[in-house]
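Let's study a protein:

___
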Amino acid sequence: MTPAWTARAARSVVASARDRARARGPQGGSDDGSAIVEFLGAGLVLLVPLVYLVLVMGRLQAASFAVDGAAREAVRAAVASPDDETALRRATAAVALTIADQGFAPEEAGAALSLDCSATPCSTPDSTVEATVELRVALPLVPGWLQDVVPLRVPVNAHATGQTDTFADRGAGGA
């Protein structure tokens, strides 16, 4: 092979490639509309998970607000009650109202609430009452049959502590 022949062959290849590029036009090919398709494809790939993440985080934040307020209100209701039965009933009602306010089923209040007292009965003066509220939050847009197979619930809980009044008369028939 002579260098002159290789140079001529290279010029020929470059010239034919240049001719083909000129024949395609000034855009350089048939890429018309591909930017729109790429934008939509990339947008869907990025936007759908982002929207789902916002939905999940919003639901978990609502659950966080619900359990925090429910625990606080359950303790307030329990420490102001005259006996243990009334304390549990009032605390359960407070939890049901608070979690329903954030869009959760009020029927879950009984299972979500746990009351612990430092003395028996809870209404003993100067006793400490602790309320724990736990909700198991289902992920949004997940079908029920899948939640039965795979545990797709996130537990969210809160604790609150209160103290009964030192000098409270708890219905002993006093003056």
The mean pLDDT is 84. Strands lie at 113-117, 128-138, 153-163. The longest strand covers residues 128-138. The first helix runs from residue 3 to 24.
